[in-house]
Design brief:
- By secondary structure, the chain is an alpha+beta fold.
- It is built from 17 helices and 4 strands.
- The chain has a 4-stranded antiparallel sheet.
- The longest helix is centred in the first third of the chain and has 24 residues, at about 20-40.
- The mean pLDDT is about 95.
Length: about 400
């Protein structure tokens, strides 16, 4: 117990004695303010409260039982979440209140996680990066260096996902991107790959002109992305990126050779390398699963969920009635995110229909579940799910191994 307390005292002391980290704590709290604004904009209270159909995370398959708040109660909880986020940011502004700010940031993240576990539709890449950055800020020593390396790896691994024609051609973009059109879109998409795979390392450079040139490009990139992905992602990334100018402008300075050289020569703390290794290993998990990961989604629970491709799909259930007839039920939800074509969504909707039948709220004997999907640049749909007798089979979604009912050929 003494060792655990000593660890947390050391984390708090590191933040207390570094003005850059204290102000970055304000940025970490701001992530939750932006999250609240986005959730209100998306009206999540309507689908995470009691009575709404649950779409559960594979690791929380019975999320419906966790829904104890009405939509009005969820709205009240969201306001409390917002107030706690603002209060946390104010606490970080005072050095003597850092211990309270630290504890408050832990609690705010716990509240956010509790809300997210109520429905899989709340899954977004933005939350993944926010949680990872917060984890590094709260629990990893050498926070300045660990955070900067981590954010650089955000970009690097996101760039590896874009090494496909779907992204390069611009077919993966959700909306037109001003001021680019025609071949300019292709040039812009290739530039983003170069930015994330190459220019990102300039964020760790010693020379000021290299750093500021790289940093400015990312600011412009996120500002332009607003028109494609909305306000949430750019504002979140502006807050996460704040660690870079804070580390350049606030004492203590970096090692004489700069962070990138120190990292390359093995001069950083082991915790920095451990953080980088953990994050990078998680990005490799999807490659252990067969099939097109963009369509099957398998393994991507643990990795970045960037939009590297735009999937279109059709999902439905064939309900077998007692009189021998069948009824087709469209299962596609009006979602504007990558989860719209995720097999997890259709698995949940089919399971919900089975449970309605078992409870006497739906009259059919069994159902067949189908999902066909394709990348925007593909010519034909590929069958992703074709499970007959879904209710009788009692299929489960295994988050750790390939699910045989998800087709990969």
């Amino acid at each position: 117990m003494a060792g655990v307390l000593g660890f947390f005292r050391a984390q708090i002391a590191e933040i207390e004695h570094d003005a850059a980290l204290r102000w970055y704590g304000v940025a970490m709290a701001f992530l939750h303010v932006v999250t609240y604004l986005y959730w209100v904009d998306q009206r999540i209270a309507a689908f995470v409260g009691t009575g709404a159909e649950p779409i559960c995370w594979p690791l929380v398959p019975e999320c419906g039982a966790l829904r104890i708040l009405s939509p009005a109660g969820v709205a009240l909880a969201l306001r409390a979440y917002f107030a706690a986020a603002v209060g946390t940011g104010l606490l970080f502004a005072s050095r003597r209140l850092v211990p309270w700010a630290y504890a408050s940031l832990v609690l705010v993240n716990a509240l956010k996680l509790a809300i997210m576990l109520l429905d899989y539709r709340l899954r977004m890449n933005q939350h993944y990066m926010a949680f990872f950055a917060t984890f590094a800020y709260l629990f990893v020593p050498a926070k300045r260096d660990g955070l900067r390396v981590l954010v650089t790896l955000f970009y690097f691994w996101a760039g590896t996902l874009k090494l496909n024609w779907e992204w390069i051609s611009g077919a993966g973009l959700y909306r037109p991107m001003w001021p680019f059109s025609g071949s300019g879109v292709l040039v812009a998409c290739v530039y983003v790959i170069v930015l994330e795979l190459g220019v990102a390392w300039g964020l760790l450079a010693k020379r000021a002109w290299i750093f500021w040139a790289a940093f400015a490009q990312f600011l412009v990139f996120h500002a332009l992305s607003w028109q494609v992905v909305g306000f949430f992602y750019p504002l979140l990334m502006f807050a996460i990126l704040a660690i870079f100018p804070l580390s350049r402008l606030v004492e203590p300075r970096d090692p004489p050779d700069g962070l990138l050289i120190a990292l390359w020569k093995g001069r950083e703390l082991r915790t920095v390398y451990a953080l980088a290794a953990l994050f990078s290993l998680l990005q490799l998990i999807p490659y252990a699963f067969p099939g097109d990961r963009t369509l099957t989604g398998q393994g991507r629970l643990y990795a970045l969920h960037m939009f590297d491709a735009r999937a279109t799909c059709a999902g439905w259930a064939e309900l077998h009635n007692a009189d021998g007839t069948t009824t087709r039920r469209d299962l596609k939800l009006p979602l504007d995110t990558r989860v719209a074509c995720d097999p997890i969504v259709y698995f949940n909707r089919a399971r919900n229909l089975c449970r309605q039948r078992d409870a006497g709220r739906a009259a059919f004997e069994d159902l067949d579940l189908f999902l066909s999907a394709r990348r925007a640049s593909d010519g034909e749909m590929k069958r992703v799910i074709a499970t007959k007798g879904f209710c009788a089979k009692g299929e489960r979604y295994d988050p750790f191994r390939h699910n045989a009912w998800i087709l990969t050929e």
